[in-house]
Specification:
The structure holds 3 protein chains of 3 kinds.
Chain A (H helix, E strand, L loop, with lengths): L2 H29 L5 E2 L1 H5 L9 E7 L5 E2 L5 E7 L5 E7 L11 E8 L5 E8 L8 H15 L1
Parallel strand pairs in A: 1-2, 5-7
Antiparallel strand pairs in A: 2-4, 2-6, 3-4, 4-5, 6-7
Chain B lengths: L1 H10 L8 H8 L2 H33 L13 H28 L2 H32 L8 H20 L6 H14 L2 H11 L19 H33 L4 H4 L5
Chain C lengths: L1 H16 L1 H22 L3 H24 L4 H5 L2 H7 L4 H15 L1 H14 L4 H28 L6 H28 L5 H29 L3
Classes of the chains: A alpha+beta, B mainly alpha, C mainly alpha.
């Protein structure tokens, strides 16, 4: 093989090695969770650290929102719909999308009692859009089915 | 050989014996492009106006509110089109960059240069409308997650292209350096696209895909579609306008530019 | 291989002959970050919280300022042109120059980082992660930075232009790096961040020098 050909070959091998390495590392990285984000199950089982700033989230449980009458304090239960749930305390204005059955993400810290004191509550939105009337119809259909 | 053919055509005064094969070849040189775009431009302008007016009235006046977000969902009709077209315009810049680096077609350089400011403005619009939308729905103007950050990077990339291109006006070497930067920046596009699927984020996943039916009813996605088309047309119109201006600027010494009456 | 080593040797020799070129950016960024405790107050809590960001600012500043000089002198005295015309492939020369640049820039700030960490009350876990993160990230920053340096050769706008071009490309590395230090300081597992940084480094080693080489050719084509 001529030297410049060999050089080209080496270089191609090198590029392959570099991209292959990058892909392998990325695939390995994707299996690791790099978000400081804890699910209700992790909070209940004690995986989440206490008194450290973390993010936690899940679905707001139906009929679990209690608002204070004097100020903006609010308390609600977050669940993963599989039996794990914890309480979030928050003082401030909640986003529009915040409601029962909606996904939320809270930033704050867990205290020793397993309650989450939130500094910020964000609502996670899904990709579904619907006019209110359609939603009513769907809800009714669900209700009929359940009967 | 190719170059010879090309040169011969250039001297041919506006001849329109077009074979499909050299149609694109001709489009690659400034003069035929200028002449053709002169015909296309007014049509594009009218279509832009129609689709944007119809789309806006439909979206803001007649489309239904969302069951959860209420009226604030209407920001979507500006936010989504501007974000889509901003990314597409970067894509176009990247492709133009590749073409310019390989074949050194002048028009590609001009196309790239003219797309950057429009793309930057659209990205800015997407970021601002996103912030306005985010505050009532998520509860925050801005969050540093993958989707928002990579879109911010897109904005900076546009700025980088603009700044580098204007470092030395009309220099071919700077044009190629800019093309290089635009091509390197293409890495960012898949990151924006897949950021909502790969990482945890507040930003909702895409409601549309080629393979599945959209997760919103027709009375919402139809006006959105009209707006997206309108934004694409708007981009095309302003871009072509800028390209024509830039052609005149670069070729102002040539015979054919001097012979145009209405300049 | 030999040509890479030779280039590294030559560039290092040149850097050591003019220590100001490497020392000044370093001194500047150290100065900047020692202003932080004076600015935000010397409270260990606040400094601990922003320490990761500050250390990264130092690394970014050092890289940015020194990357500007990477090809400058060779460009001005015509050496770069000879390197293009020479028998040895320009790409290998570029690899050599990048390695030399990293040795005097990125590596130095990596070795200094434990000291900075202590200044800002980072705990042992955090300092270990800082060193590891910078070890993985500074080569990437030099590699990506070299593209910017090559593209702006001969444009008399200097450092500001490079900063605008390459800082956006640094953002992913910066975000991952800061998150990694924060995660480590909190005592959590940061393997995911390490893998991401390594993946970005792997892809940059393969492809960034290619872009740099093309960039040099483009910039010298006039």
């Amino acid at each position: 093989m001529k030297p410049h050909r060999r050089r080209k070959l080496y270089f191609l091998l090198f590029l392959l090695l570099s991209s292959g390495g990058a892909i392998a590392l990325t695939l390995m990285a994707l299996t690791e969770n790099i978000n400081l984000f804890y699910s209700p199950a992790e909070i209940v089982s004690g995986v989440a650290p206490v008194n450290k700033r973390i993010r936690a989230g899940g679905m707001v449980l139906e009929d679990s929102i209690f608002r204070s009458e004097s100020d903006l304090e609010v308390r609600f239960i977050v669940t993963d719909l599989q039996g794990s749930e914890f309480t979030i305390f928050y003082t401030g204005i909640l986003p529009d999308l915040f409601r029962e059955g909606q996904g939320v993400v809270a930033r704050g810290a867990l205290n020793e009692d397993g309650d989450f004191l939130a500094e910020e509550v964000l609502a996670k939105h899904d990709e579904n859009y619907m006019p209110p009337e359609v939603m009513d119809v769907i809800d009714q259909a669900h209700g009929d089915l359940q009967k | 050989m190719k170059r010879m053919v090309n040169r011969k055509q250039k001297t041919e005064p506006g001849g329109c014996a077009l074979k499909m094969g050299n149609f694109f070849h001709r489009l690659g040189s400034p003069r035929p492009f200028y002449e053709l775009s002169g015909v296309v431009l007014p049509v594009a302008g009218v279509l832009t106006l129609i689709s944007l007016v119809v789309g806006s009235i439909w979206a803001l006046g007649f489309a239904p509110p969302d069951y959860q977000q209420g009226e604030s969902v209407r920001i979507m009709y500006i936010h989504v089109p501007s974000a889509i077209v901003a990314q597409s315009s970067y894509m176009m810049m990247g492709i133009a960059g590749v073409i310019f680096l390989i074949w050194r077609i002048k028009i590609a350089d001009i196309a790239l240069q003219c797309a950057a400011p429009i793309g930057a403005s659209l990205t800015f619009l997407a970021l601002v409308t996103g912030a306005i939308w985010g505050k009532p729905t998520w509860g925050a103007w801005w969050v540093w997650d993958a989707r928002l950050t990579s879109t911010l990077v897109l904005f900076f990339l546009f700025i980088g292209v603009i700044v580098l291109r204007s470092a030395k006006d009309g220099s071919e070497a700077v044009g190629r350096a800019t093309a290089m930067l635009a091509v390197v920046g293409l890495v960012n596009l898949p990151i924006i696209k897949f950021s909502v699927d790969w990482w945890f984020t507040l930003h909702q996943p895409s409601s549309f895909s080629l393979t599945e039916s959209p997760s919103m009813p027709a009375e919402m996605w139809l006006p959105l579609l009209v707006m997206v088309i309108g934004f694409y047309l708007f981009f095309f119109f302003t871009w072509m306008y800028r390209v024509r201006t830039e052609i005149l600027k670069r070729e102002h010494r040539s015979q054919w530019v001097r012979s145009i009456d209405d300049v | 291989m030999r040509i890479i080593l030779l280039t590294v040797k030559r560039d290092l020799l040149l850097y050591f002959r003019k220590p100001g070129d490497i020392f000044n950016p370093l001194a500047f960024s150290l100065l900047v970050i020692s202003l932080f405790p004076l600015g935000v107050g010397p409270s260990a809590d606040i400094l601990g919280e922003i320490s990761a960001g500050i250390i990264w600012v130092a690394a970014l500043l050092t890289t940015l300022f020194s990357i500007d000089l990477m090809f400058k002198e060779d460009y001005e005295d015509g050496t770069l042109e000879q390197m293009i015309l020479g028998r040895e492939p320009l790409l290998l020369v570029v690899y050599g120059k990048i390695i030399a640049q990293w040795l005097v820039g990125g590596l130095v700030i990596t070795l200094l980082s434990p000291l900075l960490g202590m200044m800002f009350y980072v705990n042992t876990d955090g300092i270990l992660a800082t060193v590891l993160a910078l070890m993985l990230a500074t080569p990437t920053m030099t590699l990506i930075g070299s593209i910017g340096a090559a593209l702006t050769l001969g444009l008399n706008k200097g450092g500001v232009l490079i900063a605008i071009l390459i800082l956006p490309l640094y953002l992913p590395v910066l975000i991952l790096g800061v998150a990694m230090i924060d995660t480590a300081t909190a005592g959590d597992n940061y393997a995911g961040h390490v893998l991401w940084l390594a993946a970005i480094l792997a892809i940059s080693i393969g492809f960034a020098p290619l872009a740099t080489e093309q960039g040099i050719r483009i910039s010298l084509s006039e």
